[in-house]
Amino acid sequence: MIRVLIVDDHPMFRDGLRQLLNDDDFVVVGEAGDGAEALAVLSSHPADVVVMDLHMPRMDGITAITRIRAAFPATQVLVLSTYDTDGDVIPAMSAGAIGYLLKDVPRDDLRDAVRAAARGETTLSRTAAGRLVDHVHSPELLKPREHELLRLVASGATNKEAAAALFVSEATVKAYLLRIYDRLGARDRASAVAEGYKRGLLG
């Protein structure tokens, strides 16, 4: 019997997962709405596999994965997320997740992934696997020109000023910014800069 903890900030989604994992192979030992709550539940209800979202309030999934793997090394974390950007997949796997799937995964595939996680085997969505391969071949999170642009943005440069500094068009700057947002899992310039500092890309 595989003991499972479900961690997601949407109660209805947790209910659906509980029903999905209600068979002879699994027992859901608890639920949590964020990473901090997950750690508290695990302290009293050990689990073999944590099925966890990444974008949650209070304590996000990346932080939770790191702390769960440190405090409960026998517990595997399988990410089940809506997002599969570089800024989600790479940090999650680096933090110690055993697998990464999207929330539209077929039911049987999710059950198989939980079984695999309990055995210590990795399961990845196609896009997550592709991003990991790209990361291995190009381990720098940002390309040099993207890194340079992020530094300019952090210093307060407008698109026009950044274009002049990089000797490119404003359209190229906008394209670079979109790639930066995708790689860092950012929504806008401010969150990209914040992620840049968080990940040690700016200093």
UniProtKB/TrEMBL annotation:
SUPFAM superfamilies membership: C-terminal effector domain of the bipartite response regulators (SSF46894), CheY-like (SSF52172)
Keyword rRNA-binding: no
InterPro entries membership: CheY-like_superfamily (IPR011006), NreC/VraR/RcsB-like_REC (IPR058245), Sig_transdc_resp-reg_C-effctor (IPR016032), Sig_transdc_resp-reg_receiver (IPR001789), Tscrpt_reg_LuxR_C (IPR000792), WalR-like (IPR039420)
Pfam family membership, one: GerE
Location of the Response regulatory domain: 3-118
Transmembrane segments: none
Name of this protein: Response regulator transcription factor
